[in-house]
Amino acid sequence: MSQPKVLLLGPPGAGKGTQSSNVVDEYGVDHVTTGDALRANKDMETDHGTPREYMEAGELVPDPVVNEIVKAALEEADGFVLDGYPRNLSQAEYLDDITDLDLVALLEVDREELIARLTGRRVCDGCGTNYHVEFQPPAQEGVCDDCGGELVQRDDDTEETVKDRLDVFDENTQPVVDFYDEAGRLVRVDGHGTPDEVWASLREEIEAST
Ligand code: AP5
Ligand code: MG
Question: Does 85 fall in a domain?
């Protein structure tokens, strides 16, 4: 069987990163995530300025910059889970031109829960593992269970920027959800349970799609 090609859609905080780790562990595919790629290159000079200016305002980084990142990553991947892309219709059309997908899954979580998840998220600055101060705390406060690295808050996880990011999702990315839905390609997954419960539902959909 060839490796699955999975697109995970969902608003900020829906659990795309959390569930992508499960997909990677289970199937050995590549995790292609524009958010992490941009965070690693925040001060890269492009024709459109640096990613930092957009990200710290909660806005989308211009399409040419992210399209380039995704194209290069997908060319190298044998199976993947795509997280955080596409985020507008033009990116969705570009993606359709460069690859096929086995599954397009939308993680659905309500707004109040999203805000609680994001403002409480902590990320290991060594290995990138996600935690939550309340929902997924590490054994020792502020220290990564996996690598002993320091847990930090993302620059864009302040309450004010989180609200801007949720608005950007409603405005720009909801049309992407509608695009796949209208084409009969969208599978909805309830994202409200525990990470393990959400993973059980998502895994079933992946198994059914390949
Ligand atoms: P990006 O990094 O992609 O952020 P995002 O889409 O806003 O999503 P998040 O990473 O915040 O949430 P997630 O769904 O991964 O949630 P997680 O699993 O961590 O993008 C950042 C910025 O980069 C954008 O604003 C934009 O500027 C730019 N950018 C990126 N891609 C772009 C593109 N294609 N075009 C243009 N610009 C782009 O979970 C969140 C928290 O909840 C964690 O603490 C976790 O522990 C906890 N949690 C997870 N699941 C559960 C659960 N089931 N129950 C309880 N808690 C849970
Ligand atoms: Mg993420």
Answer: yes
Q: What is the pTM of this model?
A: 0.95
Task: Confirm whether 133 is domain-assigned.
Answer: no
The helix (H) or strand (E) run that includes residue 117 is helix 111-119
**What pLDDT was estimated at residue 210?**
85
User: Does residue 16 carry a catalytic annotation?
Assistant: yes
Domain assignment present for 201: yes
Q: Residue 126: what pLDDT? A: 95
Q: What is the CATH number for 99? A: 3.40.50.300
Decide whether any atom of ligand 1 lies within 6 Å of the 169 Cβ. Answer: no
Q: What residues of the chain score a pLDDT lower than 50?
A: none
State the DSSP code for 31.
Answer: E
Distance 56 CA to ligand 2 centre (A): 15
**Structural domain span for residue 202:** 5-29+78-110+167-209
Among residues 5, 87, 117, 122, the one annotated as catalytic is 87
Active site residue 203: no
> What CA–CA distances, in Å, run from 113 to 118, 162, 202?
9, 12, 19
- Average pLDDT value for the chain: 96
Q: How far is CA 8 from CA 87, 127, 148, 155, in A?
A: 11, 21, 29, 23
- The rounded Å distance from CA 177 to ligand 1 centre is 16
Proportion of the chain above pLDDT 90, given as a percent: 99
